[in-house]
Amino acid sequence: MEETKPKLKLAVYWAAACGGCCVSVLDVHEKLFDIISAADLVFWPIALDTKYHDVEKMPDGYIDITLFNGAIRNTENEEMAKLLRKKSKILVAYGSCAHLGGIPGLANFTTKDEIFKRVYFESESVVNEKNLIPVPEYKAEEGTLFLPSFYNDVRALSQVTEPDYYLPGCPPQSERLLEVFKAIVSGAELPPKGSVIGAETKTQCDECIRKKTENKRIKKFYRPWEIKDDGITCFMEQGVLCMGPATRAGCGYRCIKGNAPCRGCYGPPPGVPDPGAKMMSAVASIIDEKDPEGINKILEDLADPAGTFYRFSLPVSLIRRKIL
Amino acid sequence: MEFKPRIVAFLCNWCSYTGADLAGTSRMEYKPNVRIIRVMCSGRVEPTFVLKAFANGADGVLICGCHPGDCHYQEGNYRCLRRYLLLQKYIRQIGIEPERLKLEWISASEGKQFAELVNSFTEKIKELGPSKIKDTIRTFA
Ligand code: SF4
Ligand code: SF4
Ligand code: SF4
Ligand code: FES
Question: Least CB-packed of A21, A202, B15, B101 within 10 Å?
Fold first, then answer.
């Protein structure tokens, strides 16, 4: 059958990202052909040689859908976020980094100066005899050279511009991307602006296949490698931290099916402003101890509560960075 | 200008709020810096409440509940204690002085203890100075 509808224009961009989100788009495998038959990819740095100035030349609203992955950590990321907002009809915060700040957002536990010190001076593999650090502007004989400036804070996409939708996951489940894409192509009515799409409204625990016992309490927490998981019982009930209580379902409990606890990449369910705070409640509820010293002793098993509870969400949490 | 700490106090309805009330009806003087929020039980105080208070500019947060064994819902204050101890760990990691958050048991007859607690906590917060949380999280750098 001949195409009747004009093809959609699709862009995929990475800001402070690991590349996994772009790869997750490729992970639709042969379904990529379905995507390409319905859409032209007009900008995708991992795969196409389109330049930033080509995007600048596009009329406003030229791109139908942009999947923006990665967090905002420097001036380049922010400029591209704003540019792509202007050029796109639908801007999707794609993946945990764009949605919540993600793994790069853990940098909010420290500062730019600390990071530079570590990376350019202290790292075991670095030799930097002249004590050089990158500068955003450098006057060379041939002219002035510019580099993006590095921010002190990592931000989610919503903290620099207004995305239309959020598609969670680190990276998003490819099936969910296809569903969303098909819905848009079919011309179906889209959810209200600002919605989380490609995910459920329940928590991981609501959907979980593992066995739960009412009011089960524990006396000790373990790192996953410290115990032999029975493969059946809820991780928390075995004393292994699982972010399920504070995490939105929708990934198809990917990790739990693989016998690993949930780490929280789909972000908090609706109505939960702060996943870490929710997790603190869940942890407090499962501890079987009333004496302060005893409780503290159990809590010592948690090596890094802040980093664990806010692994993907620090930049959008209530206390979104370390207070100095 | 003199620093007037803003303190948010979550008091459980059955013991601590009554204790605070007693301090009032007995005309005990205590520092005017606390904004009291009555909750049915200290076990109702979710970590989110505490973090929201800090994020919105509280210089200190006080939680009071019934003494251990006296909670009207049996276990609420133990749950509160566990949340509190975990919150302490977290706020230390995120760079908030742990002294800005305090949990105490106040019974319905402990009006005097409540007044003293408010005074000593206010003093402590004055020593620490204004909280930087609200400014830090509102300014991106
Ligand atoms: S969300 Fe995960 S997979 Fe995607 S860019 Fe961030 S770290 Fe990588
Ligand atoms: S805590 Fe984890 S393992 Fe337990 S029910 Fe929830 S998602 Fe499943
Ligand atoms: S189980 Fe949790 S960490 Fe794993 S993919 Fe799903 S939401 Fe992400
Ligand atoms: S009723 Fe007072 S602490 Fe539970």
Answer: A202
Q: What is the pLDDT of residues A253-272, one digit of tens each?
A: 999 999 999 999 999 999 99
Ligand nearest to the CA of A98: 1
Find out whether A13 and A66 touch, Cβ atoms under 8 Å. yes
Q: Determine whether A42 is exposed, middle or buried from the number of CB atoms within 10 Å of its CB (0-12, 13-18, 19+).
A: buried
User: What's the pTM?
Assistant: 0.95
Q: Ligand nearest A171 Cα, by number?
A: 1
What is the C-alpha to C-alpha distance for residues A102 and B11, in angstroms, rounded to an integer? 36
For ligand 2, pick from A202, A210, A240, A309 the residue to mutate: most ligand atoms within 8 Å of CB.
Answer: A210
Q: Number of folded domains in chain B?
A: 1
The secondary structure of residue A158, as a DSSP letter, is: G
CA of A51 to the centre of ligand 1 (A): 22
ipTM for the complex shown? 0.95
| pLDDT tens by residue, A200-211 | 999 999 999 999
Q: Is the CB of A103 under 6 A from ligand 3?
A: no
Of the partner residues B86, B96, B136, the one whose CB lies closest to the CB of residue A305: B86
Q: Tell me the domains of chain A and their CATH numbers.
A: 8-103+152-196 (3.40.50.700), 109-151 (no CATH), 204-316 (no CATH)
